């Protein structure tokens, strides 16, 4: 669960809700841009996204928006409320360490800015990569990482290094001031309790996908 401050009190937010809010956001943006719909109900959102409408209402209530009777939510206002709640209207800078195939792809992807993440530089110990730009982001030697984190006040680190180096780089990040790590390695990192870790295990996701496909194909037989 995550937490959000409201009138001096700490309000805990269920993680499933945090995962659904971006889904609502993308749906609403597309609806607004393509169909220019001004108002929408929780029932329509739920039906279109295959989510129980009462759950949609509970999720959206987190943003403290109020719908209008018989009309629903103002789409433009709801988009703004979700942006404000998730902090997407304030781009957060991040450093990425490990400029291999995956790291390079993440550096080159500009879509993160829409979600409030701005990867401003990459770091690696491969001299053939250091000093070059990938996706218009400069790659620095990893030795410069601690100083640059401290000088620039960076709080988010993205880890795409080979597994044997994951804990070492995570330790460097944390010591320098990183408070949240997006971990794309399969290593379970040991960090202080005041540091957030988000694990992205691509291999595990592939296993789940493959198993679901296997079940689906068997049901077709």
Mean of all residue-level pLDDT scores = 89
Task: Give the count of structural domains.
Answer: 2
**CATH class placement of the largest domain:** Alpha Beta
Largest sheet: 7 strands, mixed
H and E string: EEHEHHEHEHEEEHEHEEH
Helix fraction by DSSP (H/I, runs of at least 4): 40-55%
Question: Which stretches are poorly predicted, pLDDT < 50 over at least 5 residues?
Answer: 5-10
% residues in beta strands: 15-25%
Present the secondary structure layout:
Layout (H helix, E strand, L loop, with lengths): L1 E5 L2 E5 L1 H21 L3 E2 L1 H8 L3 H9 L11 E2 H12 L5 E6 L3 H8 L8 E8 L8 E2 L2 E5 L3 H8 L3 E4 L6 H11 L3 E4 L12 E4 L2 H19 L1
Helix pairs in contact: 1-4, 2-3, 6-7
Give an overview in words.
The protein is an alpha/beta fold and 221 residues long. The protein has helices spanning 15-35, 42-49, 53-61, 75-86, 101-108, 145-152, 166-176, 202-220; strands at residues 2-6, 9-13, 39-40, 73-74, 92-97, 117-124, 133-134, 137-141, 156-159, 180-183, 196-199. The chain folds into two domains: 2-86, Orthogonal Bundle (Arc Repressor Mutant, subunit A), CATH 1.10.10; 92-204, 3-Layer(aba) Sandwich (Rossmann fold). The strands form three sheets. A seven-stranded mixed sheet has the order 7-8-6-5-9-10-11. It has a two-stranded antiparallel sheet with strand order 1-2. A two-stranded antiparallel ribbon has the order 3-4. α2 (42-49) packs across α3 (53-61) and α6 (145-152) packs parallel to α7.
């Amino acid at each position: 669960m995550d937490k959000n401050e409201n009138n001096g009190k700490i309000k805990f937010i269920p993680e499933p809700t945090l995962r659904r809010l971006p889904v609502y956001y993308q749906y609403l943006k597309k609806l607004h841009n393509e169909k220019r719909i001004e108002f929408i109900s929780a029932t329509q959102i739920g039906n279109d996204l295959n989510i129980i409408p009462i759950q949609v209402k509970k999720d959206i209530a987190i943003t403290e928006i109020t719908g209008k009777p018989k009309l629903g939510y103002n789409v433009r206002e709801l988009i703004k409320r979700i942006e404000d709640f998730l902090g997407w209207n304030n781009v957060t800078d991040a450093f990425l360490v490990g400029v291999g195939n995956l790291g390079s792809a993440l550096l080159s992807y500009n879509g993160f800015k829409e979600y409030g993440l701005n990867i401003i530089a990459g770091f690696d110990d491969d001299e053939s990569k250091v000093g070059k730009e990938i996706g218009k982001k400069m790659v620095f030697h990893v030795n410069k990482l601690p100083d640059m984190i401290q000088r620039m006040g960076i709080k988010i680190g993205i880890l795409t290094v080979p597994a044997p180096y994951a804990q070492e780089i995570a330790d460097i990040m944390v010591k320098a001031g990183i408070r949240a790590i997006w971990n794309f390695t399969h290593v379970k990192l040991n960090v202080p309790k005041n540091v957030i870790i988000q694990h992205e295990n691509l291999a595990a996701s592939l296993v789940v996908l493959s198993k679901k496909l296997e079940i689906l194909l068997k049901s077709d037989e």
